[in-house]
């Protein structure tokens, strides 16, 4: 099974999850420093203080990427390295680190794909309201302009935001992520200001005139009823509205979905922060859409929810994991067909534009055996099935141009700390030794052949 010539195979990471060096070279604090250091927020009290120590091991990690034959590398820039308190002139040392990274990638013929915001908001901006304040959207565009000015000559792929749904809802609605708020109104307002920040940053970068490709990354999930009941079908529609359409509609249609707004109006939460002209900026044309895919939401109607702050409880819906599904170490169902559905849906319902899978992968309870080998066959079959599902979407017309596996390295998995391993490369956190897993070697072969052999078991 082959992929088109020029199909881009790579891996993805994010700054706070791998860099460490949180106090170095002028970096300011981010909301994830604050959140992870507050007791009770992250499993075992883990923080990103050291993480994979990538900041100090840059050359070694670049060499490993080259050894694996990666063609692309998606990474994110830590805003508080560039603007320690979220405004004003750039901290040159912060920019220098990313300059070394992109130059190192180019020297090794690896295409850089840069994400401007993967959740590490400067704490100083949070103190002034964070994403619930319109000022943060404006600051974000200013920050985007600084990074673009420094790196637009060497980086061709620019992603404004990673997963605005997660930043808005896990961060402000359900309190699972930084800044840890539990308020639907704050989540809606954050959602709009994230999208507005995207629109303003796009405008800023476009005005420079360089011929780069600019896009945004969404996490998308098909949403389906758990049981054959109208009430569950309605619950699935509500979840689809909040998780998918609340982002796809403003980006591609310049309008928010009315059913979602009216549901939240019923709860006393609204989108009154939207001003004239915002949606025009948010819906300005994209060069590509990044899609992060992990699983499908299977949901049941749950009007009597007894955990009022659980994800989707405010939608009177409860996620369930089908009995028959294979589950990853995150407890997430393995569902490659969902990837095909999502990619085809974008083309059929929204826009026929270039797509990249900017994240997909699974957590495994990995360990190094007595010979030091990490035999993650489950990850190999997972990736094999998802690559085939992506190919199927392409056969059905989706214009998919590349695939970034999450993740290059095991890393700080947000509220799960270091307990969940997603890497193609195993990290022994005590020694920082990197060991490519079976999946890394297998992926190198996929890239080399630009395709797949016989289906994995
Ligand atoms: C996504 C995040 C990424 C990683 C994966 C497992 O939601 O973008 O940073 O944590 O999930």
TrEMBL record:
Give UniProt keywords alphabetically: Carbohydrate metabolism, Cellulose degradation, Glycosidase, Hydrolase, Polysaccharide degradation
Name the Gene Ontology molecular function terms of this record.
beta-glucosidase activity
Q: Does the keyword Hydrolase apply?
A: yes
Q: Which reactions appear under catalytic activity for this entry?
A: Hydrolysis of terminal, non-reducing beta-D-glucosyl residues with release of beta-D-glucose
Asked if the record carries the keyword Hydrolase, the reply is yes
> What's the protein name?
Beta-glucosidase
GO BP, sorted A to Z:
cellulose catabolic process
Binding residues for substrate, per the UniProt record? 17, 118, 162, 294, 406, 413-414
List cellular component terms (GO): cytosol
The EC number on file is 3.2.1.21
Q: Where is the active site?
A: 163 (proton donor), 359 (nucleophile)
Q: Give the family this protein belongs to, as stated in its UniProt record.
A: Belongs to the glycosyl hydrolase 1 family.
* InterPro entries from the UniProt entry: GH (IPR017853), GH_1_N_CS (IPR033132), Glyco_hydro_1 (IPR001360), Glyco_hydro_1_AS (IPR018120), Glyco_hydro_1_beta-glucosidase (IPR017736)
